[in-house]
Structures are given as structure tokens and as C-alpha cells.
Amino acid sequence: MNQNFFQIALLVAFSMVAGRASSILPLGLEAAASGDGGSAAQGSNPTKGSRAKLTLVLSVDQFRADYLDRFEPFFGKGGFRRIFREGVSCRDASYRYAKTATGPGHSVIGTGAYPHQSGIVGNAWRDRKTLKNVYCVSGSQGPSPERLLVPTLAELWKARFKDHSRVLSFSFKDRAAILMAGNGGDGVYWFDPVRGRLVSSPWFDRRKTSPAREASKQWATALAKGGPEGRFIDAWLGKTWEELPCPTQDPALRKIWDSLPPDDRQGESTRNGWKPCFPKVFARSPGPRYYAQVKESPFGNEFLIQCFLSAIDSHALELGRRKDSVDLVLLSLSSLDYVGHGHGPDSHEVRDLFLRLDQQLAALFRALDEKIGKGAWTLALSGDHGVGNTMARSKKLGRIAGVVEQLVAPKGGGRVRSRLGDFLRRDLKGSFLEGFQKHATEGLGMGLVEGLCLLSDGEIYLRPDLESVSGIRPEQLLQSVEKFFGAEPYVQAIYRPGQLRHPKEAMARRVALSFHPDRSGDLLMILRPHWLWRWRSSGASHGSPHPYDRNVPILFLGRGIARGEAISGAGIEDLVPTLGKANGISRQDTWEGHALEEALEPTLGEPREAAPGKARKSTR
Length: 620
Prior knowledge:
- The protein is of the alpha/beta class.
- It contains 24 helices and 20 strands.
- Strand 5, helix 8 (174-181) and strand 6 form a beta-alpha-beta unit.
């Protein structure tokens, strides 16, 4: 690593003024104030019509689309506003499917295909033969993309540009880094919460070596060891995360700022040894508790951005800085998800993290301008899903909301599994094989429901040997389960696989895009808005097909991107085809979206007639 790398780390450490955690990367301090950011790069810019030297696909985990509108009055000039001014924004983009989770979302960002093709139907699902839990990136030799059934943009990128490219993917989460890269990453890394460093797995190490893969290993090794100034991850030891003050004195904006609910309120999490309100003090020594605190703070994003900038400076990788660079980085910033789960979208913590993210983006753009060249890099930014409110907040707003597995029926009968078991015992009475009920409830140590099927996050998986062990026919059990849940007030819709072959109504189409016959259940249920199948007693979550979970933005900036365009109606499946078109990658049969021509410069896309800045509907 070079001297610049060490200087950045040192500046981060010294930016903790009076023991308080600073807000942005050192290189962005000036950019956040001035906005436009960027002197000429070291070296000349590429000529018009050439590819970007570096393309960054940035996923902000749990990026609700409405955050842009809610927090825009408080943005600086060099972050999101630079994208609005110099790039392309689609604020109402959405996922077209039902199961909005981290694994599926990142697989769509990485492949342009929905779960019915990719097989990534959730963060986890059930093996249909054994009913055992299957994690979306579990593999024979550690975490891997073995369960991903379609090619990623990264794989197509490597096939297109070969040795001219370096492809790097990393995140706090293994499923985010792996599912965006597939088998196309020269280096694929995620955070080890025990050792406090980015790691990979033996699966990636067993692949045929190449200069790019060796370079990524050298970078990761150097990053883990740190230098004289220490490791990036340790920069916040003993510091304090305090809430940013309102950045304006405008009375109308201050009224908006003050309209947020109280900081210390019911329904927020107290995990990782932190209070549910500001200020929050980081642990004084390294270890799992401290690393968890960094992840669940704005400085988790800052850590990952610093890692990315170090890869640009690395003598081994030199991302975007080699003469023939056509590099791709897939970076998932996880901290908004951790904070959003703990505190909900209407919290002081989420607002503070998002405003700091705006500053961090300004710093990042300034650094890319200086290191690679203004106009020499391309950004595509989106999110993997949104989030709903905490249950306490939803009820405060007068919504009917709840957690199904915690719900006790008003007239007694216990929680849902117990009541379902009692219902099946009555409804199927006389159909059980002799002795089965005793065997299911006592011999296996399970309740009757688990003796017949598994209820897994709204999906029913039947035992593969159901009829032979219980005497109950599959159709008979499915009808009985449908009868029970059809009468439950929190269930909006129930689907059988056969109903998803040619879906006509919108919800059925979303469920169909989330369904894979070898991995999904035999019955699929959709909850009404603001309900969850299971969750803790505090915090917020996602996973539904409702707008607050499905809607996230798509933003583009940089080389090959139109200037000052606002478009509407895009799907997240359009991101990969758009970057593919910009980089001469042939359209794939698995891509379910289309290139957003209006997002590309006329030399890359088709001619456009609308004036810059005029919002236009994305054509399909």
C-alpha cells in the first residue's frame, strides 16, 4: 500500500474531534461544502466514446425510495444533489416481485433476473426433500454462489474484457457480496464479525489463479494487517456517535426537522450495548461488540468506502488507474439496514445515517474525480429493498399491524402454530393413520403442524412422505391449511403453484416472480400491509410485496450517463441491461428488464427528444 493510503487512514483517526465520531471521509470535507467537487485527475481523461475506466455498482441496503424526498431539503451539494444535477435519477423504481429480502434483492442487482429464474427465493428456504434450512450462499466449501442459477453482470464483464478488467465485490454481508458477483469476482469479500476484517472462503480460493485474483488477495491481506496508523475498522474505538444538528436556520425546514418523533421512543432496539437514543458510545477495545457497533452506525459505510478507495490506491489492484482499465466494483453498504432494523425508518438514527451518507457520497465522488478522473468513472446506485415501520410506530399512526407468530387470538387458543395444529386435528379427524398423531407430537418431539408440514415465513412445505406416514393426502392437507389461514384477518392472499403459471392480477404476478418450483413452498401466503410473520419485540423489518418494501430508487452518474435526467417507472431489473448496453455486453436471455435508453448518452443509447431535467416515463 502506498503513502496516500496511510494518509487517509491517519486523517480518519484524527477526524474524531474531542472524542466524537466525525461525519465524513477526509477527502470529502471540502467537497461537501463546495458541492461540484473534482479537480482534473492524475493523467488525462479517456477520449469521448471510450468505456469508463471504473464502473461502481453501489447498493445501499434498505434504501427506501421516499428517503430521497424526505431528506433532500437537508442534503449538501456534492452527494445526492450532484447525481440529480449531473446524472439520472429514477425515484420511483421498484422490485416487481414479492419477497423483498437481502439475498433476492442483491441477486436482481447482480443478474437482472428475478428468483423464478435465479433460484434465490429468499435469504433462506427449505430443501424440498429433507425440509432442512438452506442458506442462499451456503456451499460445499464455505459461502459461495453455487445456488445462483443465472449468470451475473460480473461474469459477463470478465468474459467481455478479460485481463483488462478487475472485478471486486464486497460488503459486510456475505450474501450481498456473493450474489452480486457470482463467479465473476476476482475478489469477493465480506466482514468477519469476530476478527474484524474482510474475508473470503475456500470456494473462491480454489478457482484457477490469474493476475487479477492474485492482486485482489494482496489487497485484502494488506487491508487486514493495516499499517503504522492502524486498521480502518479500529478508527472509532472509544468515540461517540452524536446526532448531527439541523443544517439550516430556515424556519420552514426547521419545522420539518423537528417533526420527527422523539429520539427515545417505544419500539427501538437496545442491542450491541447501546441505548435506543443518542449519544451512542463505541466500545473502547476491539472485538465482536465493537465491530457490531460500527456496522450499526454511519461509520460502517465509511469503513467500506475507505476499503474501496484503498483498492484504487493499491499497487496490486490500481482499480481504474491502469492504462487499459475497464474495472467493475460491486459494493453493498449494509449499515442503513442494521440501523433501520434496530430503529425503523422514522427514527433519528436513520435520518442521521442518511445525511451522513450524503456527505460520504460527496467525499467519494471527489476522491474518484481526483484519483481516476472526472468523467472517467460511472456509478449505478440502488437498494436491495425498503422497510416498514416498527410495530409500535405503525400502531401509533393508527394502522392495524402485528407479528403473526406473536399474535394470540382474542378468544384464546394460543398462538398461530398451536391454533393451526388444533384446527388440523379437528378438520382432518378420522383421516390420520393409527398412531400418527401420538408419533408426531411425542415421538418426534414436534407439534402436529411440524409432523405434517413446515410453516416457513409464509410458505407451507409439505412433508415429501406425507401420505405414507400420516394417511393425509397432500391436496387434503392443503385445503385444510387454506381454510384455516383464509379466515385469519392478517392474511391478504393465498396462492398455489398452479395459480402462478399464468398470473393475471398484479399481486399474483409478483408472487410468481418470487416462486421457484424446486425451492419454494406448496402454498404461499401474502400478509396485509404492516404485518410480519416473525420478528423481535422491537425494531422494524421488510420482506413484503407492499410499496414500502418494494420501492427503491435507481441513480446513475458519470461517463456514458445522460446529464440532469429524471425518469420514472423503471424496475431494478433494468439496472444490469443498462450497464450492459453502456459497456457493449450483449443482451442475455435471462435479463428481465431493458436498457434505460434515456439514462444513457445519445452515443450509447437511442436519441432522445425531451429536454434535460424533464421527468419522463420509462418505456417498456
